[in-house]
Amino acid sequence: MLYCLEKIETSVMPNDIVRLYLDIYPFIGRNADMLSTVERDLDVLIATTIQRDAGALKTLFDLNVSESRMRAMLIKDVRPKTKDERLLKNIRRAFEKVHQETDTFALYVAEVHDLLKFLYADVEAPSKLQFAKAEKQKRKRTDLLASAHTTKREALEALIHQYKRIQNKALFEPSYVIVNFYIDFINMKPFTAHNDMIGLFLLYILLLTNGYQSLHLSSFFEHIEKQAATFEKHTKDASYNWSEGLADVMPMHRFLSKLLLESYRNLHELLRNYTYDKQTNKSDYIENTINKLDEVFTKEDIRRRHPTISESTINRTLKRLRDEKKIRPLGKGRSASWMKLFKSTKPPSIAEQIKLKV
Questions:
Q1: Domain boundary residue among 215, 249, 270?
Q2: Which domain holds residue 183?
Q3: Which of 103, 200, 319, 332 is most buried, judging by how many CB atoms fall within 10 Å of its CB?
Q4: Same domain, residue pair 221 and 123
Q5: What is the model's pLDDT at position 3?
Q6: Cα 54 to Cα 57: distance, rounded to the nearest angstrom
Q7: Measuring CA to CA, how many Å separate 336 from each of 75, 207, 303, 332?
Q8: Number of separate domains in the chain
């Protein structure tokens, strides 16, 4: 059942993906410098990323948790009342553990099974958190990819061994090997249930522990949630003809490479805003950010750009701008939108600058 990893060494990398690597590598080379820039507030920023990742998974898996209860589960130590709320809180705790143990993570069968039990503790009965039984299928012919493993546990053990062997060879960019591992895992379905959740967590953990440290501060699952239909399509396409050893993971790899590049660009913007936040009047800088936002915006749009600025400072700035009749609220409550009553002064685009008369 190693259908993707078994054939990975025959892969030929397209030029456009190589160019994506060349755009990403300079960022990876600056991992330490970028994280050191926010060292004083690193824990706060990681906590914000965890909240966003957990909130995105709540949407992706359609958990029945209200907006207010979600915030309580993710920000405060509120006791969950339902299974979905318990799962959401476990997801948050799992993310915290991942970020704390990034440098010491080791991929083993026991660790993967422990992740399943950790996430679904007090959500599912232990009897439902076991390895699935291997299917006995009659084959018309024996091929090189026919499974030689009698249990799903053995198959997962072999998959992990193959993953480590290929990574150690260093013939391919780590993210490409990870994508192949992910497609093998979700099609193998080693557990009786929840393989999709565990597969996504493993995809995330392996990327984070293989150099993509932008995921400490840029929400991976928010990117996935925003492009959920595309991600699902690439997953299905990559799984097509998987059991025949003919899966094509390159479109999925291209998609994830673009996503990772975007996560680093988001991190670059966050660091720029962070530096300015430390040097300028926070209220004035929030106003400047609002000026660059769309005509209708939310407080969440501001929080994303200034995660270390307090809620009270954001609220004071919004109240001041409202009193100055520069903005007005659309609705009430935490999720209310705001409308600008002035024309934004965004800088001209490159095309507009070319047309300027000098």
A1: 270
A2: 3-136+144-270
A3: 200
A4: yes
A5: 82
A6: 5
A7: 19, 35, 14, 5
A8: 2
- Torsion sign over Cα 301, 302, 307, 312: negative
d(C-alpha 267, C-alpha 35), whole Å: 10
The last residue of a domain, from among 270, 296, 311: 270
DSSP bridge pairs for 298: 337
The pTM of this model reads: 0.79
User: Reduced to 3 states, what is the DSSP secondary structure of residue 206?
Assistant: helix
Here the tokens at position 147 are 């499974």
Q: What angle do CA 107, 57, 239 make, to 5 degrees?
A: 65
358/347 Cα distance (integer angstroms): 17
- The sheet carrying 327-330 orders its strands as 296-298, 337-340, 327-330
**Average pLDDT rounded to a whole number, residues 30-37:** 92
Q: Which CATH number is 203's domain given?
A: 1.10.3290.10
Check whether residue 201 and residue 320 sit in a common domain: no
Minimum mean pLDDT range among 56-65, 115-124, 133-142, 247-256: 133-142
